[in-house]
Amino acid sequence: MNTKSFNRKTWLGAVFTFALVAVLGLTFAFIPAKSVSEKKAQPSLYWYSIDQNDNTLKAQLNSSPQTKDDSMPNGANPLTECRDLTSTPCIVGYETAQPTGIDVPATAGIEHRIAFSN
């Protein structure tokens, strides 16, 4: 067996293997990771219409709690035509049932109101 030819073949095989591993490693190193977008879970709420004249709760719109997304147009159970595009509340939601005719109680945040459309 010719050792010179054997060494050359071994060396070329090692270089080829190293190059292949390097190319694969670099390829996977620069593939962007898939972004995981975590959507905050919305609370299930009882939704009420508001009398804009005296700022009181007019009527309860749902008999079982549901999320803001479900309550908006194109949701699973739309309660209003309001599309949440302004800062003036159209309907408000609470974790517990509220009596109607009372002043609108403070809400916990933006996920507890759906605003009017423009």
Protein model, in words:
This protein has helices at 3-29, 68-71, and strands at 46-51, 56-60, 89-94, 113-115. The protein is an alpha+beta fold. It has a domain at 46-115. It is rod-shaped, with a radius of gyration of 31 Å.
- Spatially, the strands of the biggest sheet line up as 2-1-3-4
The amount of helix comes to 25-40%
Distance between the termini: 87 Å
Would you tell me the structural class of the helices and strands?
alpha+beta
- What is the succession of H and E elements? HEEHEE
Rg, nearest Å: 31 Å
Question: What would the average pLDDT be, to the nearest integer?
Answer: 85
**Silhouette:** rod-shaped
Beta-strand share of residues: 15-25%
> Poorly predicted ranges (pLDDT <50, ≥5 residues)?
none
Counting DSSP E segments of at least 2 residues, the number of strands comes to 4
Largest sheet: 4 strands, antiparallel
